[in-house]
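Lecture notes, unit on binding sites. The following record was shown on slide 14. It pairs a sequence with adenosine-5'-diphosphate.
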Amino acid sequence: MTTNETAVRVRELRKQYGQKTAVDGVSFDISPGETFALLGPNGAGKSTTIEILEGYRSRTGGEVSVLGIDPAKGGLGWKARLGIVLQTTGETGLVTVAEQLKHFAGFYPNPRDVDEVIAAVGLEAQAKTRIAKLSGGQQRRVDVALGIIGRPELLFLDEPTTGFDPEARRRFWEVIRGLKAEGTTILLTTHYLDEAAQLADRAGVIAAGRLVDLGGIDEIGGAAARVPLVRWRDAGGVLHEERTHEPGRVVAAVVASSGGEPDGLEVIRPSLEDIYLQLVRSVEGAAEPEEVLA
Ligand code: ADP
């Protein structure tokens, strides 16, 4: 693969399960070396899209190219260039971490060193432990280790840190940044928007089978959704809010007119999660409530 080729190219992808349209004309590109997050609520069509890219699922329509190959026709040589970390691998083997990795390394033409991978996912102390005896978070790191042992050019990470404690999540992010620094292209799905904001260069937001936004992780939702909000209470306890591109100027004016810092003064910059929720709600409206509050 040359560096100016796209790693993943998706055009007007469609997938129909009987009457149900799961993916409805989705198009995006992922450049080599990029970390791309595919975001969206449950049932949006993320897994279907990813499974089509991985060659596990057929498509109803559209064009797909992954590392220059149509996944519907990808052979073993192509598969060996991919690393896949599924949502639940259920690695509960009786073999040790090191044994399992050594076994999998044997399937690839140019695998990474087993000890190096164990260190990369922070499992040095558990290398000789049977996988079944590891904690859930440690087993997840084994999944990731198995996903990268073959030195993939493209790594699929499907909700990689679900169930991690905050410390383990941060360690995992370091692993992913290391892979990115080596030039690995990464397609990430996650329900943790802070994770996407930390790791991804670009993102696509999918809702009800359609791509509702696509762009740089700092641009998703558009400039208007990112305008900071200044909030404070006046002497009478009344709440005031002002959206402004110049929060510093507004804060200074509020402080001056209040004769000091008013109660509850804060500048709120919308997080990726705030922006994402706005986007998804505006698309799905109240028509399809996934969860009904009692
Ligand atoms: P996500 O990964 O974003 O949660 P999915 O791709 O799993 O979304 O699902 C998209 C839609 O397709 C959902 O409405 C889901 O119920 C439906 N779907 C997924 N897989 C199948 C299947 N094998 N047969 C029928 N419908 C399916």
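Take-home: Residues 17, 20, 22, 40, 42-48 surround adenosine-5'-diphosphate (CB under 6 Å).
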